[in-house]
Amino acid sequence: MHTHTPASARLADVIPSTWSRNINSDAKNPQGSKALLTASLSLCAVIGFWGVIEPASLLAIASTVVDQYFISRGWAVMLSVTVMLVFCLSLTFTKWGDIRLGADTDRPEYSTPTWIAMLFAAGMGVGLLFWAAAEPLTHYEFASRFLPAPLAAEQALLAANFNWGIHAWAIYGTTALAIAYFSYRRGSPMLVSAPLKNLFPGEKWAHALGWFSDFMAIAAIAIGVAGSVAMGVFQVADGVTVLLGRETSTPLLIGMVFALMIAAYIPPLLVDLGAGMAKLSNIAMLLAIGLVVYTIILGPSEYLLNSIISGIGKYVSVVIPRGLETFTFYGNETSKWFRDWTLTYMVWWIAWGPFVGVFVARISKGRTIREFVLGVLIGPTLFSTIWFGAFGGIGIFDALNGGGDLLALTQTNVERMTFALLDRLPFSTLTTLTTVVAAFLFIVTSVVSAAFVLGTFSTGGNPNPSAKIRVIWGLLLGVLGAAMILSGSMAAVRTLIALGALPFVFITIILLACLIRALLQDARKEDVHADR
Amino acid sequence: MLIGDPIDTLMNIGTFAFIGFVAWIVMRGEPGGPDT
Fold first, then answer.
1. Measuring CA to CA, which residue among A466, A223, A273 is closest to residue A265?
2. Residue A334 pLDDT exceeds 90
3. How many Cα atoms within 13 Å fall on the side-chain side of residue A33?
4. How far is A106 from chain B (nearest CA, A)?
5. What's the angle, vertex CA A264, arms to CA A258 and CA A266, rounded to 5?
6. Which DSSP string do the residues of A491-526 spell out, in sequence order?
7. Which of A297, A482, A488, B12 would you label with A471, given CA atoms 20 to 30 Å apart?
8. Global pTM?
Protein backbone atom coordinates (compact mmCIF):
# COMPACT_ATOMS: atom_id res chain seq x y z
CA MET A 1 0.00 0.00 0.00
CA HIS A 2 1.15 3.50 -0.77
CA THR A 3 1.13 6.03 2.01
CA HIS A 4 1.03 9.30 0.13
CA THR A 5 -1.54 12.06 0.08
CA PRO A 6 -4.36 11.47 -2.39
CA ALA A 7 -3.40 12.41 -5.93
CA SER A 8 -6.43 14.68 -6.11
CA ALA A 9 -5.15 16.79 -3.21
CA ARG A 10 -1.83 17.46 -4.89
CA LEU A 11 -3.35 17.84 -8.33
CA ALA A 12 -5.55 20.59 -6.94
CA ASP A 13 -2.43 22.75 -6.68
CA VAL A 14 -1.60 22.46 -10.35
CA ILE A 15 -4.91 22.18 -12.17
CA PRO A 16 -6.93 25.29 -13.04
CA SER A 17 -9.69 26.02 -10.56
CA THR A 18 -12.43 25.56 -13.19
CA TRP A 19 -11.41 21.93 -13.54
CA SER A 20 -11.63 21.08 -9.88
CA ARG A 21 -14.57 23.33 -9.07
CA ASN A 22 -17.12 20.57 -9.48
CA ILE A 23 -15.24 17.84 -7.62
CA ASN A 24 -17.71 15.92 -5.50
CA SER A 25 -20.38 18.48 -6.30
CA ASP A 26 -22.91 15.66 -6.24
CA ALA A 27 -21.78 14.56 -2.82
CA LYS A 28 -22.59 18.07 -1.60
CA ASN A 29 -25.90 17.89 -3.38
CA PRO A 30 -27.74 14.96 -1.79
CA GLN A 31 -31.01 16.14 -3.34
CA GLY A 32 -29.67 15.53 -6.86
CA SER A 33 -28.24 12.12 -6.10
CA LYS A 34 -31.44 11.11 -4.32
CA ALA A 35 -33.44 11.92 -7.45
CA LEU A 36 -30.98 9.90 -9.51
CA LEU A 37 -31.22 6.97 -7.10
CA THR A 38 -35.02 7.04 -7.10
CA ALA A 39 -35.27 7.35 -10.89
CA SER A 40 -32.82 4.55 -11.62
CA LEU A 41 -34.23 2.19 -8.97
CA SER A 42 -37.72 2.82 -10.36
CA LEU A 43 -36.73 2.11 -13.96
CA CYS A 44 -35.03 -1.16 -12.99
CA ALA A 45 -37.94 -2.17 -10.76
CA VAL A 46 -40.47 -1.48 -13.54
CA ILE A 47 -38.50 -3.51 -16.10
CA GLY A 48 -37.91 -6.27 -13.55
CA PHE A 49 -41.53 -6.66 -12.48
CA TRP A 50 -42.80 -6.23 -16.04
CA GLY A 51 -40.52 -9.08 -17.10
CA VAL A 52 -41.73 -11.30 -14.26
CA ILE A 53 -45.43 -10.60 -14.80
CA GLU A 54 -45.58 -10.49 -18.59
CA PRO A 55 -42.27 -11.57 -20.16
CA ALA A 56 -43.76 -11.99 -23.67
CA SER A 57 -44.82 -8.35 -24.08
CA LEU A 58 -41.53 -7.03 -22.67
CA LEU A 59 -39.62 -9.19 -25.11
CA ALA A 60 -41.80 -8.12 -28.06
CA ILE A 61 -41.16 -4.43 -27.36
CA ALA A 62 -37.44 -5.01 -26.73
CA SER A 63 -37.12 -6.91 -30.02
CA THR A 64 -38.89 -4.20 -32.00
CA VAL A 65 -36.72 -1.39 -30.63
CA VAL A 66 -33.49 -3.34 -30.97
CA ASP A 67 -34.29 -4.53 -34.52
CA GLN A 68 -35.21 -1.04 -35.68
CA TYR A 69 -32.00 0.29 -34.19
CA PHE A 70 -29.77 -2.42 -35.59
CA ILE A 71 -31.30 -2.37 -39.06
CA SER A 72 -30.83 1.34 -39.24
CA ARG A 73 -27.53 1.85 -37.45
CA GLY A 74 -25.22 -1.15 -37.80
CA TRP A 75 -22.71 1.07 -39.60
CA ALA A 76 -22.61 3.54 -36.73
CA VAL A 77 -21.95 0.81 -34.14
CA MET A 78 -19.16 -0.81 -36.16
CA LEU A 79 -17.63 2.56 -37.02
CA SER A 80 -17.72 3.58 -33.34
CA VAL A 81 -15.98 0.46 -32.05
CA THR A 82 -13.33 0.72 -34.77
CA VAL A 83 -12.71 4.37 -33.88
CA MET A 84 -12.27 3.33 -30.23
CA LEU A 85 -9.78 0.63 -31.24
CA VAL A 86 -7.75 2.94 -33.48
CA PHE A 87 -7.85 5.64 -30.80
CA CYS A 88 -6.55 3.30 -28.07
CA LEU A 89 -3.80 1.85 -30.26
CA SER A 90 -2.65 5.23 -31.55
CA LEU A 91 -2.30 6.56 -27.96
CA THR A 92 0.51 4.03 -27.42
CA PHE A 93 2.57 5.61 -30.21
CA THR A 94 2.28 9.18 -28.91
CA LYS A 95 3.64 11.14 -25.97
CA TRP A 96 0.21 10.69 -24.31
CA GLY A 97 1.21 7.06 -23.79
CA ASP A 98 3.67 8.25 -21.11
CA ILE A 99 0.97 9.86 -18.96
CA ARG A 100 0.45 7.98 -15.73
CA LEU A 101 -3.07 7.25 -14.45
CA GLY A 102 -2.42 8.77 -11.06
CA ALA A 103 0.23 11.10 -9.72
CA ASP A 104 3.53 10.82 -11.58
CA THR A 105 5.05 8.99 -8.61
CA ASP A 106 2.26 6.39 -8.34
CA ARG A 107 3.05 2.78 -9.22
CA PRO A 108 0.65 -0.13 -10.03
CA GLU A 109 -1.02 -1.82 -7.06
CA TYR A 110 -1.30 -5.25 -8.72
CA SER A 111 1.23 -7.35 -10.62
CA THR A 112 0.58 -7.46 -14.37
CA PRO A 113 -0.62 -11.12 -14.48
CA THR A 114 -3.02 -10.57 -11.56
CA TRP A 115 -4.22 -7.36 -13.18
CA ILE A 116 -4.94 -9.09 -16.50
CA ALA A 117 -6.69 -11.99 -14.71
CA MET A 118 -8.93 -9.49 -12.90
CA LEU A 119 -9.65 -7.61 -16.12
CA PHE A 120 -10.66 -10.80 -17.79
CA ALA A 121 -12.86 -12.08 -14.98
CA ALA A 122 -14.73 -8.76 -14.89
CA GLY A 123 -15.10 -8.31 -18.64
CA MET A 124 -16.04 -11.74 -19.90
CA GLY A 125 -16.16 -14.38 -17.18
CA VAL A 126 -19.18 -16.60 -17.31
CA GLY A 127 -20.08 -15.95 -20.94
CA LEU A 128 -16.90 -17.48 -22.22
CA LEU A 129 -17.55 -20.72 -20.28
CA PHE A 130 -20.97 -20.85 -21.83
CA TRP A 131 -20.02 -20.16 -25.45
CA ALA A 132 -16.64 -21.96 -25.50
CA ALA A 133 -17.59 -24.52 -28.14
CA ALA A 134 -21.20 -23.50 -28.73
CA GLU A 135 -20.38 -20.26 -30.52
CA PRO A 136 -17.72 -21.49 -32.99
CA LEU A 137 -19.89 -24.52 -33.79
CA THR A 138 -23.02 -22.43 -34.31
CA HIS A 139 -21.07 -20.23 -36.73
CA TYR A 140 -19.68 -23.35 -38.39
CA GLU A 141 -23.17 -24.75 -38.89
CA PHE A 142 -24.26 -21.47 -40.47
CA ALA A 143 -21.15 -20.94 -42.63
CA SER A 144 -21.17 -24.52 -43.94
CA ARG A 145 -24.46 -23.75 -45.72
CA PHE A 146 -22.50 -21.46 -48.04
CA LEU A 147 -18.87 -22.55 -47.82
CA PRO A 148 -16.86 -25.78 -48.11
CA ALA A 149 -15.94 -27.27 -44.71
CA PRO A 150 -12.36 -25.93 -44.30
CA LEU A 151 -13.39 -22.37 -45.11
CA ALA A 152 -16.49 -22.65 -42.94
CA ALA A 153 -14.32 -23.81 -40.02
CA GLU A 154 -11.89 -20.93 -40.54
CA GLN A 155 -14.71 -18.38 -40.72
CA ALA A 156 -16.39 -19.89 -37.65
CA LEU A 157 -13.29 -19.46 -35.49
CA LEU A 158 -12.71 -16.00 -36.89
CA ALA A 159 -16.24 -14.88 -36.02
CA ALA A 160 -15.95 -16.15 -32.43
CA ASN A 161 -12.50 -14.58 -32.02
CA PHE A 162 -13.78 -11.31 -33.42
CA ASN A 163 -16.91 -11.17 -31.26
CA TRP A 164 -14.87 -11.72 -28.06
CA GLY A 165 -11.71 -10.00 -29.25
CA ILE A 166 -9.84 -6.74 -29.27
CA HIS A 167 -12.83 -4.57 -30.24
CA ALA A 168 -14.62 -5.59 -27.05
CA TRP A 169 -11.55 -4.60 -25.06
CA ALA A 170 -11.22 -1.34 -26.97
CA ILE A 171 -14.76 -0.47 -25.80
CA TYR A 172 -13.86 -1.33 -22.20
CA GLY A 173 -10.48 0.36 -22.52
CA THR A 174 -11.96 3.63 -23.81
CA THR A 175 -14.63 3.79 -21.10
CA ALA A 176 -12.15 2.86 -18.36
CA LEU A 177 -9.51 5.29 -19.64
CA ALA A 178 -11.97 8.21 -19.69
CA ILE A 179 -13.16 7.47 -16.13
CA ALA A 180 -9.60 6.79 -14.87
CA TYR A 181 -8.09 9.88 -16.52
CA PHE A 182 -10.65 12.28 -15.08
CA SER A 183 -10.56 10.59 -11.70
CA TYR A 184 -6.78 10.25 -11.25
CA ARG A 185 -5.51 13.26 -13.23
CA ARG A 186 -8.27 15.74 -12.46
CA GLY A 187 -9.75 14.51 -9.19
CA SER A 188 -13.30 13.93 -10.46
CA PRO A 189 -15.61 11.36 -8.84
CA MET A 190 -15.70 7.95 -10.53
CA LEU A 191 -18.90 8.61 -12.45
CA VAL A 192 -19.83 8.44 -16.10
CA SER A 193 -20.99 12.06 -15.84
CA ALA A 194 -17.67 13.26 -14.37
CA PRO A 195 -15.87 14.01 -17.68
CA LEU A 196 -18.73 16.19 -18.99
CA LYS A 197 -19.16 18.06 -15.71
CA ASN A 198 -15.41 18.54 -15.40
CA LEU A 199 -14.94 19.93 -18.89
CA PHE A 200 -18.02 22.13 -18.96
CA PRO A 201 -18.55 23.17 -15.34
CA GLY A 202 -21.70 25.10 -14.61
CA GLU A 203 -23.19 24.57 -18.06
CA LYS A 204 -26.77 23.35 -17.89
CA TRP A 205 -26.66 21.06 -20.93
CA ALA A 206 -23.56 19.27 -19.60
CA HIS A 207 -25.20 18.84 -16.20
CA ALA A 208 -28.40 17.44 -17.74
CA LEU A 209 -26.56 15.13 -20.13
CA GLY A 210 -24.31 14.01 -17.27
CA TRP A 211 -27.32 13.18 -15.11
CA PHE A 212 -28.87 11.25 -17.97
CA SER A 213 -25.56 9.39 -18.53
CA ASP A 214 -25.37 8.28 -14.90
CA PHE A 215 -29.01 7.24 -15.01
CA MET A 216 -28.54 5.22 -18.20
CA ALA A 217 -25.25 3.76 -16.95
CA ILE A 218 -27.12 2.40 -13.95
CA ALA A 219 -29.80 0.88 -16.18
CA ALA A 220 -27.22 -0.60 -18.57
CA ILE A 221 -25.20 -2.16 -15.73
CA ALA A 222 -28.27 -3.51 -13.94
CA ILE A 223 -29.72 -5.08 -17.08
CA GLY A 224 -26.34 -6.35 -18.31
CA VAL A 225 -25.41 -7.99 -15.01
CA ALA A 226 -28.91 -9.43 -14.60
CA GLY A 227 -28.54 -10.97 -18.08
CA SER A 228 -25.29 -12.51 -16.97
CA VAL A 229 -27.02 -13.88 -13.86
CA ALA A 230 -29.70 -15.46 -16.04
CA MET A 231 -27.14 -16.96 -18.39
CA GLY A 232 -25.11 -18.28 -15.47
CA VAL A 233 -28.17 -19.80 -13.77
CA PHE A 234 -29.01 -21.68 -16.99
CA GLN A 235 -25.42 -22.89 -17.18
CA VAL A 236 -25.15 -23.97 -13.55
CA ALA A 237 -28.59 -25.67 -13.56
CA ASP A 238 -27.65 -27.52 -16.72
CA GLY A 239 -24.35 -28.62 -15.21
CA VAL A 240 -26.12 -29.93 -12.11
CA THR A 241 -28.56 -31.80 -14.40
CA VAL A 242 -25.63 -33.46 -16.15
CA LEU A 243 -24.01 -34.34 -12.82
CA LEU A 244 -27.29 -35.92 -11.64
CA GLY A 245 -27.51 -37.90 -14.88
CA ARG A 246 -30.85 -36.32 -15.87
CA GLU A 247 -31.95 -35.25 -19.34
CA THR A 248 -33.28 -31.72 -18.97
CA SER A 249 -33.17 -29.20 -16.15
CA THR A 250 -36.54 -28.61 -14.50
CA PRO A 251 -37.94 -25.20 -13.55
CA LEU A 252 -37.63 -26.34 -9.93
CA LEU A 253 -33.89 -26.91 -10.32
CA ILE A 254 -33.43 -23.55 -12.06
CA GLY A 255 -35.35 -21.93 -9.20
CA MET A 256 -33.16 -23.66 -6.62
CA VAL A 257 -29.92 -22.62 -8.32
CA PHE A 258 -31.24 -19.08 -8.52
CA ALA A 259 -32.15 -19.04 -4.82
CA LEU A 260 -28.74 -20.48 -3.90
CA MET A 261 -27.05 -17.77 -5.94
CA ILE A 262 -28.94 -14.98 -4.15
CA ALA A 263 -28.08 -16.64 -0.83
CA ALA A 264 -24.42 -16.71 -1.87
CA TYR A 265 -24.12 -13.08 -2.93
CA ILE A 266 -26.10 -11.33 -0.20
CA PRO A 267 -23.57 -11.97 2.66
CA PRO A 268 -20.58 -10.45 0.76
CA LEU A 269 -22.75 -7.37 0.12
CA LEU A 270 -23.03 -6.79 3.85
CA VAL A 271 -19.27 -6.56 4.38
CA ASP A 272 -16.78 -4.24 2.69
CA LEU A 273 -15.59 -5.07 -0.78
CA GLY A 274 -11.98 -6.09 -0.30
CA ALA A 275 -9.29 -8.43 -1.50
CA GLY A 276 -11.68 -11.33 -0.95
CA MET A 277 -13.65 -10.61 -4.11
CA ALA A 278 -10.46 -10.29 -6.15
CA LYS A 279 -9.39 -13.66 -4.77
CA LEU A 280 -12.69 -15.27 -5.77
CA SER A 281 -12.44 -14.01 -9.36
CA ASN A 282 -8.83 -15.19 -9.50
CA ILE A 283 -9.89 -18.69 -8.40
CA ALA A 284 -12.59 -18.70 -11.09
CA MET A 285 -9.99 -17.58 -13.62
CA LEU A 286 -7.54 -20.31 -12.57
CA LEU A 287 -10.31 -22.92 -12.95
CA ALA A 288 -10.96 -21.61 -16.49
CA ILE A 289 -7.26 -21.78 -17.35
CA GLY A 290 -7.18 -25.30 -15.91
CA LEU A 291 -10.08 -26.33 -18.17
CA VAL A 292 -8.43 -25.07 -21.35
CA VAL A 293 -5.07 -26.64 -20.48
CA TYR A 294 -6.81 -29.92 -19.65
CA THR A 295 -8.68 -29.88 -22.97
CA ILE A 296 -5.52 -29.22 -24.97
CA ILE A 297 -3.56 -31.98 -23.17
CA LEU A 298 -6.21 -34.70 -23.15
CA GLY A 299 -7.87 -33.76 -26.46
CA PRO A 300 -6.24 -34.04 -29.91
CA SER A 301 -3.32 -31.84 -28.80
CA GLU A 302 -1.61 -31.20 -32.11
CA TYR A 303 -4.91 -30.44 -33.86
CA LEU A 304 -5.93 -27.99 -31.12
CA LEU A 305 -2.58 -26.21 -30.99
CA ASN A 306 -2.67 -25.87 -34.80
CA SER A 307 -6.23 -24.57 -34.50
CA ILE A 308 -5.14 -21.94 -31.94
CA ILE A 309 -2.21 -20.74 -34.05
CA SER A 310 -4.09 -20.56 -37.35
CA GLY A 311 -7.01 -18.90 -35.54
CA ILE A 312 -4.69 -16.18 -34.22
CA GLY A 313 -3.10 -15.75 -37.66
CA LYS A 314 -6.41 -15.36 -39.45
CA TYR A 315 -7.69 -12.98 -36.78
CA VAL A 316 -4.63 -10.70 -36.83
CA SER A 317 -4.63 -10.56 -40.63
CA VAL A 318 -8.21 -9.24 -40.95
CA VAL A 319 -8.93 -7.58 -37.60
CA ILE A 320 -9.32 -3.98 -38.85
CA PRO A 321 -11.32 -4.59 -42.09
CA ARG A 322 -13.49 -7.11 -40.22
CA GLY A 323 -14.34 -4.38 -37.71
CA LEU A 324 -15.89 -2.34 -40.53
CA GLU A 325 -17.61 -5.30 -42.21
CA THR A 326 -21.40 -5.00 -42.13
CA PHE A 327 -22.26 -7.90 -44.52
CA THR A 328 -24.52 -5.62 -46.56
CA PHE A 329 -24.14 -7.46 -49.85
CA TYR A 330 -24.54 -11.01 -48.56
CA GLY A 331 -28.33 -11.26 -48.51
CA ASN A 332 -30.90 -11.27 -45.73
CA GLU A 333 -29.85 -14.49 -44.04
CA THR A 334 -26.25 -13.36 -43.51
CA SER A 335 -27.35 -9.85 -42.49
CA LYS A 336 -29.55 -11.38 -39.85
CA TRP A 337 -26.69 -13.57 -38.66
CA PHE A 338 -24.46 -10.50 -38.44
CA ARG A 339 -27.06 -8.58 -36.41
CA ASP A 340 -27.82 -11.51 -34.13
CA TRP A 341 -24.18 -12.17 -33.32
CA THR A 342 -21.49 -9.56 -33.99
CA LEU A 343 -23.69 -6.48 -33.69
CA THR A 344 -25.46 -7.82 -30.60
CA TYR A 345 -22.09 -8.60 -29.00
CA MET A 346 -20.70 -5.14 -29.69
CA VAL A 347 -23.75 -3.56 -28.06
CA TRP A 348 -23.40 -6.08 -25.23
CA TRP A 349 -19.80 -5.01 -24.56
CA ILE A 350 -20.92 -1.40 -24.63
CA ALA A 351 -23.61 -2.27 -22.05
CA TRP A 352 -20.92 -3.70 -19.79
CA GLY A 353 -18.67 -0.70 -20.47
CA PRO A 354 -19.56 1.48 -17.47
CA PHE A 355 -19.38 -1.42 -15.00
CA VAL A 356 -16.15 -2.91 -16.34
CA GLY A 357 -14.84 0.62 -16.95
CA VAL A 358 -15.15 1.66 -13.30
CA PHE A 359 -13.72 -1.65 -12.12
CA VAL A 360 -10.79 -1.48 -14.56
CA ALA A 361 -10.17 2.17 -13.66
CA ARG A 362 -9.97 1.21 -9.99
CA ILE A 363 -7.44 -1.58 -10.48
CA SER A 364 -5.28 0.31 -13.02
CA LYS A 365 -4.14 3.23 -10.89
CA GLY A 366 -0.42 3.91 -11.30
CA ARG A 367 -0.05 2.46 -14.81
CA THR A 368 0.91 4.61 -17.79
CA ILE A 369 -1.63 4.98 -20.58
CA ARG A 370 0.66 2.90 -22.82
CA GLU A 371 0.86 0.02 -20.30
CA PHE A 372 -2.86 0.32 -19.71
CA VAL A 373 -3.85 0.15 -23.38
CA LEU A 374 -1.46 -2.67 -24.29
CA GLY A 375 -2.46 -4.72 -21.21
CA VAL A 376 -6.21 -4.20 -21.59
CA LEU A 377 -6.28 -4.79 -25.35
CA ILE A 378 -3.72 -7.55 -25.90
CA GLY A 379 -3.79 -9.69 -22.72
CA PRO A 380 -7.47 -10.71 -22.60
CA THR A 381 -7.72 -10.93 -26.41
CA LEU A 382 -4.85 -13.41 -26.47
CA PHE A 383 -6.60 -15.51 -23.84
CA SER A 384 -9.89 -15.51 -25.83
CA THR A 385 -8.18 -16.61 -29.04
CA ILE A 386 -6.49 -19.49 -27.17
CA TRP A 387 -9.81 -20.39 -25.55
CA PHE A 388 -11.81 -20.48 -28.80
CA GLY A 389 -8.91 -22.06 -30.69
CA ALA A 390 -9.00 -24.96 -28.21
CA PHE A 391 -12.75 -25.38 -27.55
CA GLY A 392 -13.87 -24.32 -31.03
CA GLY A 393 -11.09 -26.47 -32.45
CA ILE A 394 -12.25 -29.57 -30.58
CA GLY A 395 -15.85 -28.92 -31.65
CA ILE A 396 -14.81 -28.61 -35.29
CA PHE A 397 -12.61 -31.71 -34.91
CA ASP A 398 -15.73 -33.59 -33.83
CA ALA A 399 -17.74 -32.18 -36.76
CA LEU A 400 -15.10 -33.07 -39.36
CA ASN A 401 -13.56 -36.27 -37.94
CA GLY A 402 -15.94 -37.53 -35.26
CA GLY A 403 -19.64 -38.30 -35.08
CA GLY A 404 -20.69 -34.69 -35.48
CA ASP A 405 -23.24 -34.98 -32.70
CA LEU A 406 -21.85 -31.82 -31.04
CA LEU A 407 -22.77 -29.96 -34.22
CA ALA A 408 -26.32 -31.28 -33.97
CA LEU A 409 -26.56 -29.78 -30.45
CA THR A 410 -26.27 -26.25 -31.91
CA GLN A 411 -29.78 -26.80 -33.28
CA THR A 412 -31.32 -28.63 -30.34
CA ASN A 413 -29.69 -27.84 -27.00
CA VAL A 414 -26.98 -25.20 -27.25
CA GLU A 415 -26.97 -24.74 -23.45
CA ARG A 416 -25.62 -28.28 -23.09
CA MET A 417 -22.65 -27.80 -25.43
CA THR A 418 -19.82 -27.24 -22.94
CA PHE A 419 -20.87 -30.25 -20.85
CA ALA A 420 -21.44 -32.46 -23.89
CA LEU A 421 -17.92 -31.63 -24.98
CA LEU A 422 -16.39 -32.36 -21.58
CA ASP A 423 -18.34 -35.64 -21.53
CA ARG A 424 -16.25 -36.77 -24.53
CA LEU A 425 -13.03 -36.36 -22.51
CA PRO A 426 -11.89 -38.36 -19.44
CA PHE A 427 -12.82 -37.37 -15.86
CA SER A 428 -15.96 -35.63 -17.09
CA THR A 429 -17.59 -35.57 -13.65
CA LEU A 430 -14.64 -33.61 -12.28
CA THR A 431 -14.48 -31.17 -15.23
CA THR A 432 -18.25 -30.66 -15.22
CA LEU A 433 -18.08 -29.86 -11.51
CA THR A 434 -15.17 -27.47 -12.17
CA THR A 435 -17.20 -25.66 -14.84
CA VAL A 436 -20.21 -25.41 -12.54
CA VAL A 437 -18.10 -24.01 -9.70
CA ALA A 438 -16.29 -21.54 -12.00
CA ALA A 439 -19.60 -20.32 -13.46
CA PHE A 440 -21.05 -19.90 -9.99
CA LEU A 441 -17.99 -17.93 -8.79
CA PHE A 442 -17.94 -15.69 -11.87
CA ILE A 443 -21.58 -14.76 -11.34
CA VAL A 444 -21.30 -14.18 -7.60
CA THR A 445 -18.27 -11.91 -8.04
CA SER A 446 -19.96 -10.04 -10.90
CA VAL A 447 -23.13 -9.38 -8.91
CA VAL A 448 -21.27 -8.26 -5.79
CA SER A 449 -19.01 -5.85 -7.64
CA ALA A 450 -21.91 -4.66 -9.82
CA ALA A 451 -24.04 -3.94 -6.75
CA PHE A 452 -21.09 -1.97 -5.37
CA VAL A 453 -20.54 0.02 -8.57
CA LEU A 454 -24.31 0.64 -8.87
CA GLY A 455 -24.33 1.90 -5.29
CA THR A 456 -21.43 4.24 -6.10
CA PHE A 457 -23.15 5.55 -9.24
CA SER A 458 -26.52 6.06 -7.63
CA THR A 459 -25.14 8.05 -4.67
CA GLY A 460 -23.24 10.66 -6.67
CA GLY A 461 -19.85 8.91 -6.73
CA ASN A 462 -19.66 7.86 -3.07
CA PRO A 463 -16.87 5.25 -3.12
CA ASN A 464 -18.37 3.51 -0.07
CA PRO A 465 -22.15 3.21 -0.53
CA SER A 466 -23.97 1.93 2.55
CA ALA A 467 -24.67 -1.79 3.01
CA LYS A 468 -28.38 -1.03 2.72
CA ILE A 469 -28.00 0.45 -0.78
CA ARG A 470 -25.73 -2.42 -1.83
CA VAL A 471 -28.28 -5.01 -0.67
CA ILE A 472 -31.14 -3.16 -2.40
CA TRP A 473 -29.17 -3.28 -5.64
CA GLY A 474 -28.28 -6.94 -5.05
CA LEU A 475 -31.96 -7.82 -4.64
CA LEU A 476 -32.98 -5.76 -7.68
CA LEU A 477 -30.36 -7.52 -9.76
CA GLY A 478 -32.00 -10.74 -8.55
CA VAL A 479 -35.47 -9.57 -9.67
CA LEU A 480 -34.12 -8.47 -13.06
CA GLY A 481 -32.30 -11.79 -13.37
CA ALA A 482 -35.56 -13.61 -12.61
CA ALA A 483 -37.27 -11.55 -15.35
CA MET A 484 -34.65 -12.69 -17.82
CA ILE A 485 -34.89 -16.32 -16.71
CA LEU A 486 -38.68 -16.16 -17.13
CA SER A 487 -38.29 -14.72 -20.63
CA GLY A 488 -37.21 -18.26 -21.35
CA SER A 489 -34.33 -18.28 -23.81
CA MET A 490 -30.82 -17.06 -24.35
CA ALA A 491 -31.89 -15.11 -27.44
CA ALA A 492 -34.39 -13.23 -25.28
CA VAL A 493 -31.73 -12.47 -22.68
CA ARG A 494 -29.41 -11.05 -25.30
CA THR A 495 -32.17 -8.88 -26.77
CA LEU A 496 -32.94 -7.44 -23.33
CA ILE A 497 -29.26 -6.68 -22.72
CA ALA A 498 -29.05 -4.92 -26.08
CA LEU A 499 -32.11 -2.83 -25.19
CA GLY A 500 -30.51 -1.66 -21.94
CA ALA A 501 -27.32 -0.76 -23.76
CA LEU A 502 -28.73 1.28 -26.64
CA PRO A 503 -28.32 4.76 -25.13
CA PHE A 504 -24.86 3.81 -24.02
CA VAL A 505 -23.70 3.52 -27.58
CA PHE A 506 -23.93 7.32 -27.63
CA ILE A 507 -22.69 7.94 -24.11
CA THR A 508 -19.51 5.91 -24.68
CA ILE A 509 -18.72 8.04 -27.74
CA ILE A 510 -19.30 11.22 -25.70
CA LEU A 511 -16.86 9.87 -23.07
CA LEU A 512 -14.30 9.32 -25.84
CA ALA A 513 -14.80 12.89 -27.07
CA CYS A 514 -14.35 14.24 -23.52
CA LEU A 515 -11.15 12.24 -23.10
CA ILE A 516 -9.73 13.57 -26.38
CA ARG A 517 -10.60 17.13 -25.35
CA ALA A 518 -8.92 16.68 -21.96
CA LEU A 519 -5.79 15.15 -23.51
CA LEU A 520 -5.54 18.08 -25.94
CA GLN A 521 -6.07 20.60 -23.11
CA ASP A 522 -3.36 19.01 -21.00
CA ALA A 523 -0.96 18.84 -23.94
CA ARG A 524 -1.49 22.58 -24.60
CA LYS A 525 -0.85 23.28 -20.93
CA GLU A 526 2.42 21.31 -21.13
CA ASP A 527 3.41 23.35 -24.21
CA VAL A 528 2.75 26.61 -22.37
CA HIS A 529 4.93 25.41 -19.48
CA ALA A 530 7.65 24.36 -21.92
CA ASP A 531 7.56 27.80 -23.62
CA ARG A 532 8.11 29.54 -20.31
CA MET B 1 -38.43 2.06 -56.48
CA LEU B 2 -35.21 2.93 -54.75
CA ILE B 3 -36.72 5.21 -52.12
CA GLY B 4 -35.74 4.23 -48.56
CA ASP B 5 -37.88 3.99 -45.46
CA PRO B 6 -38.42 7.51 -44.04
CA ILE B 7 -37.94 6.45 -40.39
CA ASP B 8 -34.66 4.82 -41.32
CA THR B 9 -33.55 7.99 -43.09
CA LEU B 10 -34.48 10.17 -40.12
CA MET B 11 -32.64 7.93 -37.67
CA ASN B 12 -29.52 8.01 -39.78
CA ILE B 13 -29.65 11.79 -40.19
CA GLY B 14 -30.01 11.93 -36.40
CA THR B 15 -26.84 9.86 -36.10
CA PHE B 16 -24.98 12.40 -38.24
CA ALA B 17 -26.27 15.20 -36.03
CA PHE B 18 -24.82 13.28 -33.09
CA ILE B 19 -21.45 12.99 -34.83
CA GLY B 20 -21.51 16.77 -35.26
CA PHE B 21 -22.26 17.18 -31.55
CA VAL B 22 -19.30 14.94 -30.67
CA ALA B 23 -17.00 16.97 -32.90
CA TRP B 24 -18.25 20.12 -31.17
CA ILE B 25 -17.38 18.66 -27.73
CA VAL B 26 -13.81 18.04 -28.89
CA MET B 27 -13.27 21.27 -30.82
CA ARG B 28 -15.17 23.93 -28.85
CA GLY B 29 -12.97 26.83 -27.70
CA GLU B 30 -12.15 27.29 -24.03
CA PRO B 31 -14.31 29.81 -22.15
CA GLY B 32 -12.12 32.91 -21.94
CA GLY B 33 -9.49 31.31 -24.14
CA PRO B 34 -8.11 32.65 -27.43
CA ASP B 35 -10.61 30.65 -29.52
CA THR B 36 -13.80 32.17 -28.10
1. A273
2. yes
3. 21
4. 29
5. 100
6. HHHHHHHHHHHHHHHHHHHHHHHHHHHHHHHHHHHH
7. A488
8. 0.86
